[in-house]
Amino acid sequence: MNLYINSFFLILIIFISILEKNYILKNPNIGLLQHPTFWIFIISNFYITISLYLKHNKLINDITESTFNKLNENFIKIKKSNKNKILFNMIIIIGFCFFIGNSLQNAKVINKLPFDFWDSKTYIFSYFFTRIYKFYLFILFLPNLIWYSSTLIFSLSKIIIINYDDEKKEINYPIKNYFELNYLCNFGINILIISIIPFITFTSSIYIVHKQFDVTTISTMFITLLYILTLITMYYILINKYRNNIIKYKNKNLKEFNTELSEIHKKILNFQLNDSKNDILEKYLKKEEYIFKAKEQIEKINIYPQIIKAMIVCFSPIIPMLIRLIFELIIKLN
Description:
mainly alpha; 10 helices
């Protein structure tokens, strides 16, 4: 549905722009074909919708049916919770504030920048229809994207756990669903990547169009820092239960491995190297080798899966701001 809506607005705004002859304007004014923000919105919208569709289909094919059913059950349960409804309403309120601020700016009430093809006084029809499109973006599309991403992260966090019986005495190695758990974690981070694309593109366009540090650019900096903290929190929520289970799993199994190794070493030391007992000794040595390898594999398990990718994702929103600050610094030095 979103693809059709986005395509409709794209065709409509191009048609209005042709009628009002504002597709190319003289510098410093910005026409439709010259406006990076509009095209960033359009392209990001298409990309996000297609990416989510492909990621979702790939997930269905790559995980077991029981895991997918658990994920779906968690998603529906969280979706219906009161906390989730409050979160969704808060996101819509924030989106509405962005919409009002952007509309006031384009109406020349705040941040009196050079006019563009959706300027309210010069091109009334372009302004009117881009307001409808931005209403859709800020109050429907983006809030739903953020809500969907956060709900999915919460749902994933409930199934990225290690299920094993604490009471069992035998060595529980290796983790049967370890690779699936890592896959689910990676999927969650990919959803975060998709969810931050509109934010990164939006902030990039702000720093390009606004050639000064004004109310919009400065407020965007604060929102960027807040968004980074939010992404780090989302990653922690995603892997928290997994991390706790991994620590528990490692401690339990390493303790059992060390106990068994101690027993094997005692038995090996008690053996006399003679032909009648060489077979038994070799059996213990092979078991010792297996346990050492198992210990090494368990010690290598990272309690923070996909940590490098997660950190790159979490701090990526600050990149446009850093580029802008570096650019400003270079100008001042020259």
